[in-house]
TrEMBL record:
SMART domains on file: AAA (SM00382)
Domain ABC transporter intervals: 21-250
CDD domains: ABC_NrtD_SsuB_transporters
Name the record gives this protein: ABC transporter related
Alphabetized UniProt keyword annotations: ATP-binding, Nucleotide-binding, Transport
């Protein structure tokens, strides 16, 4: 395994870029009424510790299927995904998933939702930790509210706090901000980047939004469909914070737009 050093913009220190995740020759075939359907074919990539990787692709190209394999919800038909050299065969606390849809427990308060998965702490420690994460996502005044009493953006903040408090090795995010309005979406992207700067998680973030990928990623994997495969990899060499209206940002967007438009090889 190769080990390199890289500087992640926005991070204060150099991080060791040892791959935490290695995906090799991964394929996924579903049985359907019309016969086998190859959704992913020969997918290969690595993710470095602390890296922010976006997977960008059109609807139906297999992004969620890929994330489900990494989460351990689906098994590959061929090839494998290794988490620190161990094949992923089931879900585990080292990987947390944030979905697009709301998955909060409606009968629990914001604080209770955040604290839900925390184990092995005294009541006092758990309360302090919960309050800390509540504060990190800017929801301190809303700790005792129920999910139905807060906005969609606030629910997303709770969803983020709920997984961050578990300190996962890898954060898997499946179009988490897809249902939000443009302004709230940008606010959530900024919040996620600021939390990533503090915690240095490894993040795999699925999106079909070009701007979102350029705003967030260290590196973008562009997928094509039928079958789903990685068509292109682009490293985003823009300093953070990234200014969306400036030419270099727009240049990346144009390149990605062209990549997505290209016909299937
Ligand atoms: N369990 C399953 N059985 C059969 N087909 C499936 C199954 N899960 C997904 N598929 C098919 O695999 C293809 C890829 O689906 P997937 O949800 O992974 O794509 P996606 O890129 O995430 O799409 P979107 O951006 O619209 O969410 C689709 O045609 C879908 O119908």
């Amino acid at each position: 395994m190769t080990t390199q050093l890289k500087l992640i913009p926005g991070h204060k220190k150099e991080l060791q870029a040892t791959p935490v995740l290695q995906v090799s020759k991964l394929s996924k075939v579903f049985k359907t009424g019309d016969g086998p359907m190859t959704v992913l074919q020969d997918v290969n990539f690595q993710v470095a510790e602390g890296e922010f990787l976006c997977v960008l692709g059109p609807s139906g190209c297999g992004k969620t299927t890929l994330l489900n394999v990494l989460a351990g919800f689906e098994k590959p038909s061929a090839g494998n995904a290794l988490l620190e050299e161990t094949p992923i065969t089931e879900s585990g606390p080292d990987r947390c998933v944030v979905f697009q849809e709301d998955t909060l427990f409606p009968w629990l308060t914001v604080k209770e939702n955040i604290a839900f998965g925390v184990k092995g702490l005294s009541k006092k420690e758990k309360r302090e930790k919960t309050n800390h994460f509540l504060d990190l996502v800017g929801l301190t005044p809303f700790g005792d509210y129920l999910p139905r009493e807060i906005s969609g953006g606030m629910k997303k903040r709770v969803s983020l706090a709920r997984v961050l408090i578990l300190q996962p090795r890898i954060l898997l995010m499946d179009e988490p901000f897809g249902a939000l309005d443009a302004q709230t979406r940008e606010e959530m992207q900024d919040l996620l980047l600021s939390l990533w700067n503090q915690f240095h998680h490894t993040i795999i973030f699925i999106t079909h939004d070009i701007d979102e990928a350029v705003a967030l990623a260290d590196r973008i994997l562009v997928m094509q469909k039928d079958p789903g495969m990685i068509a292109k990899e682009i490293r985003v060499r823009l300093p953070r914070p990234r200014e969306r209206t400036e030419a270099p940002f727009q240049d990346y967007c144009k390149t990605l737009y062209q990549s997505l438009k290209k016909p299937q090889p």
